[in-house]
Design a protein that fits this description.
With 247 residues, the chain is α+β, with helices and mostly antiparallel strands. The protein is built from eight helices and eight strands; from the N terminus they run H-H-H-E-E-H-E-H-E-E-H-E-H-E-E-H. Strands 3-4-5-8-7-6 form a six-stranded antiparallel sheet. The protein has a two-stranded antiparallel sheet with strand order 1-2. The relative contact order is 0.12.
């Protein structure tokens, strides 16, 4: 019974800390309570607190410094050309009814190509998802996603029949870097059938990787019918550097 209680409690502590960080209540650089303070708050042992903090440190969400304590990580943010889209929100914003279907879900070891897509050195357990998004009943996007369970183990317990994986990740897992690759492609027949298109129809393909610190979180390939999606970026020229500022 003690072991079950310990397992449940360290997950609760980890969840509580994650929620405070993700909500912004504990901003980057914030010192989280010392171990003895957490022990007193939750009425548990130091081992239980360590079990809660270790995964948070491994995922890059917090930094543990000997004697100084643990702090919320300061994200290394790189500018990206496009924001990460939340497809349900985008379809709804267009004034269209949104629909979603989880077509397949499987937990397994990443294959060679998937290891390359995630940018990893060794095989890891991944959650492989295939989903279809609809707008006004019509196919809007086919989503093929890998989630690195070593970085986001809680994803294995999420019911993705009820929530789109992209939406869940955006609301639960902070990201510090992202890379987009956009291309036009004549998709395979199997894909065109799912999207209700003629064989080898031209589609827009958006591939994206996201990181949290040094951890690769997810790789996703989104395939849109050519007429269904626009990618728009608004930008301005950067001002010339002030020579005096360099002195």
């Amino acid at each position: 019974m003690t072991d079950l209680k310990d397992a449940s409690l360290h997950k609760r502590i980890r969840s509580d800390i994650s929620e405070r960080i993700l909500s912004g209540a504990w901003p980057p650089g914030y010192r989280i309570p010392y171990e003895h303070e957490l022990m007193a708050e939750y009425g548990c042992s130091r081992m239980t607190v360590n079990k809660a903090l270790a995964p948070l440190a491994e995922s890059g969400l917090i930094i543990r410094r000997r004697k100084a304590g643990s702090f919320v990580s300061r994200p290394r943010i790189h500018s990206v050309v496009l924001d990460i889209p939340d497809i349900p929100a985008e379809v709804t914003a267009r004034g269209e009814p949104y629909g979603y279907e989880l077509q397949s879900r499987k937990v397994r070891l990443a294959g060679r190509r998937e290891i390359e897509e995630l940018g990893l050195d060794l095989p890891v357990e991944v959650l492989a998802l295939r989903c279809l998004h609809r707008a006004s009943g019509r196919p809007f996007a086919l989503e093929e996603r890998l989630i690195n369970l070593a970085a986001v183990p809680e994803a294995a317990d999420v019911d993705f029949t009820r929530v789109a994986p992209g939406s869940w990740l955006l609301s639960h897992v902070p990201w510090t870097e992202a890379e987009h690759r956009i291309s036009a492609a004549n998709v395979p027949r199997a894909t065109s059938l799912v999207l209700g298109l003629e064989a080898h129809a031209a589609c827009l393909v958006l591939e994206r990787q996201t990181w949290r610190g040094d951890d690769r979180i997810t790789h996703v390939r989104l395939t849109f019918p050519g007429e269904a999606y626009d990618l728009v970026a608004r930008f301005a020229p950067q001002p010339a550097a002030n020579p005096a500022a360099r002195r």
